[in-house]
Amino acid sequence: MTTLVARPVPARRGNDQRHALVAIAHVRLMMLMLLIMAGFLLVIGRIALLGILSTPAGAANLAVNPQVRGDILDRNGQPLARTIDAWTIGVRPPQLLGDRQALADSLARLMPGHDASWYFQKLTMRAKFTYLDKHASPDLVNKVHALGEPGLVFAREPERLYPQSTMAAHVLGYIGPTATDVNIAGRAGIERAFDERLSDPRRRGEPIALSIDARVQAAMESELGRAMTNFRAKAATGIVLDVHTGEIISMVSLPVYNPNKISGTSSDSLRNNVTQSVYELGSTFKPIAIAAAINDGVITDMTRRFDATKPLKVGKYTIHDDRGDPKRWLNIPETLVYSSNVVTAQIADRMGKDRMAAMFTALGFGERPAIELRERAGPIWPRYWGRTTVMTTAYGHGIAVTPLHLANAYATLVNGGIYRPTTLLKIAPGAAPKGRRVLTEATSARMRQLLRLVVLLGTGRKGDAPGYRVGGKTGTGEIAGAGGYSRSKNVSTFAAAFPMDAPRYVVVAMLDSPNGTAETFGLTTAAWNAAPVVGRVISRTGAMLGVTPDATRDIDVSQLLPLVWTGDKKPAATAE
Amino acid sequence: MLGLAWKSLGWFLASVAVALGFLLVPLQVAAERKKLDRTVVEIARAEREIRALETEFDTRANMAQLDKWNAEKLGLVAPSAGQFVADEAALAALEPSSPNAPQMASFKPLAPLPTADAVDGTTAAPVAVASVSPKAAPASVPATRTQAAVVPAPVSPRAKPTRDAAPVGRTAMASVAPPKPRAAVAMLDRALLDDSMLGDLRSGARAETRSRK
Fold first, then answer.
1. Are A407 and A241 in contact (CB under 8 A)?
2. Does the distance separating the beta carbons of A52 and B41 come in below 8 Å?
3. Do B58 and A549 touch (CB under 8 A)?
4. For chain A, which terminus, N or C, has the lower number of CB atoms within 10 Å?
5. A539 and B80: CB-CB below 8 Å?
6. Measured between CA atoms, how close is B19 to chain A, in angstroms?
7. What is the DSSP string of A24-70?
């Protein structure tokens, strides 16, 4: 038994030591575990944080609008200008593998724009990269891709496209570099006026809605274009204007250009004749003068007669009427129906310089037309208001304004007498500017009757559209050149509004230097060329614009009708 | 001792499982998000493609082009004042079969069919319109699709069906027209539809006219 002597102390000590060691190990393990867990927690926390808070990977690309330039739409949402991704085909000559001549031949077959030698020259160029085609169709890209040449590369690049091609070109404008500025930016029209807004990364996603109605614009362009060709006119303009809001529904300037392909366009085509060209618009000013006279109380009685039996001599000038006009004493309706210069001049003379100039100023003739476009020309305002100036401006000579000025003045004449600035941007219903009163309500009502009479009995008969109650005034202004006014060259204008019982739209058509044709018996007056354009445009588009044609309704002109002398025969429509 | 080790291993495994569980959630979220991103990119691409196609369509069918086609081929014109009615009452008061009524639809109603005994076999005027194709109308073959009680008269050479029919109305809505002896499909250029199609349309119209009586 004695041999079995245990040594308890060392054993106990060892046991204690082991306990201590185990404890230390535990502590260390625990610390390690805590560290690992902390590491885990850190990673998990980070992942969780990323998962919860971070933005998705593609977000950086998505947040920026993919479009590089905003769309331009018409008032019904039809695109007039868009930026699309166009396929470009390029070549990296050093990377070409196959036979270059054979490749050039097949390229010439697929893209007949150039011949094989041109392609061969491109393929053998000592350059890293060169373009072969910048506006390829996807179909063509597929075909070229099928050639299987690794040196040919394809890419999509943004390209500005005007789907309607030449339509509303002067409204939209175009983009591109210029000789002095290599940046691609808007160079005319809306593209220029709203360049910043269209290219602003935050706002280019939302399109600009114009006041233009593409359907009306197309009808106006087609009718005006036909008239311009028919009468071999130098230029032509057309406007449709909403009289209650100042929105321009259609603005046409011919000759036109194609904003998709701007190179080689003449400066004549680039000029927007509606806002950049000023014309002496002739007799279309007479209603403005008469309205001013009625408004200021110079004329209080429609039956008041003025002498038109002989030309009017003022100093060394003589104002005379056309040969076909009746040489009688004319009352106010007759003055407009027969378009008498002599009587208008007398009325203007009674009104005097101040009231005449004040009316023109109130209608905005003293400044550039109110519109967003940057292409605006100032009117030619008489430098000296002599007695004759007052007289001649009353029938539209001696003062030159843009066709847009005239359209807006007519809107003021018929809409109840409120002048509003014109705009190319769509106005939300009810958000039209208040405008300022230029004429009294009564004057405007009288002008509607008078303008309707001109179309019913006078020179505007060819401008009527059945059922649409058109009222308007023709004007044939002689063109001033070197050595005085030209007898043969003129500016024919017809300014009209419809429906006259509650006017909604003003329509103006103008032809610059038209020639006579067999149908017009060689005549170049507005009654024969500009008025029919307006008539046809109104019958084509009136219903689209929300005016229901109604043959049973019309403005009441029964008060004025008996005042107009129609002679033995119907008054000749050739008078101006 | 061993128990303790098992226990801590148990704890360790449990915590690893929990940690993994925690780890999986954000991973799954990230995966979902990625899928969403891909869908968004796909949507954006589809929208771009729609835009490109729309633009192509607009470009091909631009107003000038449509105007040209209309001038050359279709010859549609805007409806005239007489083709509008003032209100619902006026619309209801329209009697489509009266001689001077404006045409509402693209069909003109047929003139009343002559009764069978009125056909004496000498006139080819009320030729059954279903047998419009000249070669499909030999005298021996009865026009099977004419619901009309008219036996086609022996076809005389001048009875080339439909060719001498009334001129096709060329307004967007057919204009007011005096009653024509036979059906004419307004608005359609003859070249646009083949004769059998026109025949089908006419026999359909005829059946409708009959059912209205």
1. yes
2. no
3. no
4. N
5. yes
6. 7
7. HHHHHHHHHHHHHHHHHHHHHHHHHHHHHHSPPTTHHHHHS-S-SS-
Q: Report the alpha-carbon distance of residue A478 to residue A322 in Å, rounded.
A: 13
Selection from A406, A400, A408 nearest residue A436 by Cα: A408
- Across the interface, of A79, A221, A548, the residue whose CB is closest to B58 is A79
Is residue A240 helix, strand or coil? strand
To 5 degrees, how large is the angle CA A77–CA A82–CA A86? 145
B172 token code pair:
């967007």
Of B22, B33, B48, the CB nearest to A56: B33
- Decide if pLDDT at A199 tops 90: no
Instruction: Provide, as residue numbers in chain B, all residues whose Cβ is less than 8 Å from the Cβ of A32.
Output: none
Contact A318, A293 (CB under 8 A): no
Q: Which residue in chain B is spatially nearest to A467 when comparing CA positions? A: B81
Q: How far, in Å, CA of B177 to CA of B165, rounded?
A: 14
Rounded CA-CA distance B58/A79 in Å is 8
- For residue B80, list chain A residues with Cβ-Cβ distance below 8 A: 466-467, 539, 549
3-state secondary structure chain B: CHHHHHHHHHHHHHHHHHHHHHHHHHHHHHHHHHHHHHHHHHHHHHHHHHHHHHHHHHHHCCHHHHHHHHHHHHCCCCCCHHHCCCCHHHHHHCCCCCCCCCCCCCECCCCCCCCHHHCCCCCCCCCCCCCCCHHHCCCCCCCCCCCCCCCCCCCCCCCCCCCCCCCCCCCCCCCCCCCCCCCCECCCCHHHCCHHHHHHHHHHHHHHHHHHC
Q: How confident is the model at residue B32 (pLDDT cuts 50, 70, 90)?
A: very high
Tokens of A149: 């040449």
Element of type H or E holding A341: helix A341-351
| Model confidence band, residue A573 (pLDDT cutoffs 50, 70, 90) | very low
On whether the CB atoms of residues A313 and A291 are closer than 8 A, the answer is no
**CB-based burial label for B130 (10 Å; 0-12, 13-18, 19+):** buried
User: In the beta sheet, which residues pair with residue A175?
Assistant: A186
Q: Which of A254, A542, A80 is nearest to B77 (CA)?
A: A542
The CA distances from residue B150 to B129, B131, B145, B147, B163, in Å, are: 10, 12, 11, 8, 20
Alpha helices in A85-178 (DSSP H): 100-110, 116-123, 138-145, 169-172
> Which of A109, A100, A163, A172 has the alpha carbon at shortest distance from A140?
A109
Q: Between these two residues, A509 and A203, which has the higher pLDDT value?
A: A509
Q: How large is the ipTM?
A: 0.70
CA–CA dist A115, A138 (Å, integer): 21
Cα separation of B146 and B127, whole Å?
10
Catalytic residues of A: 283
CA distance B10 to chain A (A): 13
What phi and psi, each to the nearest 5 degrees, are found at residue A86? -100, 145
Burial of A563 (0-12, 13-18, 19+ CB in 10 A): middle
B197–A contact, CB cutoff 8 A: no
The pLDDT tens digits of the residues spanning A29-39 come to 889 989 998 99
What band does B194 get if pLDDT is binned at 50, 70 and 90? low
What is the distance between the alpha carbons of residues A571 and A461, in angstroms, rounded to a whole number? 11
pTM: 0.73
- Counting Cα atoms < 13 Å in the Cβ hemisphere of A89 gives 24
Give the residue among A202, A203, A173, A201 at the shortest CA–CA distance from A185: A173
Question: Crossing angle, helix A353-362 and helix A387-394, to 10 degrees?
Answer: 40
Dihedrals phi, psi of A549, to nearest 5 degrees: -70, 140
- Beta-carbon separation of B81 and A468 below 8 A: yes
User: What count of other Cβ atoms lies within 10 Å of the Cβ of residue A484?
Assistant: 8
Return the closest-CA partner of residue A189 out of A114, A285, A253: A253
Closest approach of A371 to chain B, Cα-based (Å): 25
d(CA B127, CA B165): 11
